[in-house]
Amino acid sequence: MTRINNFIAGEWVLPSNGEFGQSINPARISDIVTRYPLSAKSDVDRAVAAARDAFPAWRDLPAPRRAEILYKAAEIMQRAKTELGKSVTREMGKVYSEGLGDIQEAIDMAYYMAGEGRRMVGETVPCELPHKDGKSIRVPHGVFALITPWNFPVAIPVWKIFTALICGNTAVFKPSSDSPYCAALLVEILEEAGLPAGVLNLVMGRGKQVGEYLATHPGVDGISFTGSCAVGEALAQQAAVLHRPIAMEMGGKNAILILEDADLDLALPGVLWAAFGTTGQRCTAASRIILEQGVYDRFLSRLVEATVGLRLGDGLLQETDIGPLINKQGLNKALDYISIGQEEGAELLCGGVRAAEGSLQEGYFMQPAVFANVRPEMRIVQEEIFGPVVAVMPCAGYEEGINLINQSRYGLSSSIYTNNVNYAARAERDIDSGLVYINASTIGAEIQLPFGGFKHSGSGHPEAGGRMGGIDFYSRIKVIYRDFSGRLQKAQIAEDS
Questions:
Q1: How is residue 209 annotated by DSSP?
Q2: Which of 19, 46, 173, 254 is least surrounded by CB atoms within 10 angstroms?
Q3: Is 0.85 surpassed by the pTM of this model?
């Protein structure tokens, strides 16, 4: 067992109150991964002050020089990929191949954002008056509060941290209390890469005491939050009062529509991956499966058979298909929704019970569940479960299927399987979500494009790659006019007026 500390002003420091919590392995709850600080508000104050002190020098360091540090961090992550992947699996439970994927996504984003150091573009345009030019440039906001979840304990922090830093901001990073060890490993990498003291600060602790206080701190200039809808929407209200930019990603109730002409051999592994990858604990997980009547019985039978065959276990074991849920609360929530679905009249075809045979009794395991005979208004269809539970419903055709997809307060990721090129093209327009997949799972976003959802899934401003994503959020546009005529010139006013 190890103990980790906060990282403030370039030093690893104890929390001011001396209090610590424990991060445990959800596959084997007797395995304590680390003890981590349960920080006080005074620790947040110190971290924000350190970030403010570091901001002027970091802002003034040319972006290509900032990029060199981020590039070094990417190289270190690449060399440490195997051990980092194992740490992800041990601390949050996803199977090892997914743990490696988490790290690879972080590496990809790190290289991408390092490249942005030489592409921090604005624009230069002609002016209407002689001896005058005009341009726009990107400038940082200042200090960002970065609040991240446990399900991608390295990739999502890298999305936020590296984008904020390359734009010239400094940051205070508050990770989930379910994945503090992975957060500390990431900060150690940036420290090793030569990041100046105070540019990135790590403060751990409970969301209410640390995360909310950090997001609303008077020394913070912007907020990026990934987590629950309830917390995100409360932060958005506070950010509006503070006149503070905020980016939020808050989950989904994602759907896959499978039409009669679809390749079912392609659709089945896509559904299994979307529904049960990361034990259904992804904001992009598919928890609603919509089947056209002609393939409903056939596909449902194959789905149940394949689901029953999935192997639960410790994610570090090669034979494991599905790992545990993150903690006792997550397990109980998923089990509660099984009861809710049955009370509403849905038919549970498989799974939905805690798996406690053999070594599984040592962790938070649940047999993956498939519900049939569901109605659109049911809670298991409308509410995010964040576990290995899917609801299957029929539709009469394309139009009804699209309507069912869109009958949700969320709008993050959706998918359609069809070999009809017209339906595929129409789906790009008709599906009301930030991510749309054609003949692919709802999981599979790549870092070079923006990531974000519609409706209650997000703030409407995506993060990740591309200038329409993170770069646009973590920088702001300053317009500069330079008049070298030596006399007063009045734009839009005629000389003879």
A1: I
A2: 19
A3: yes
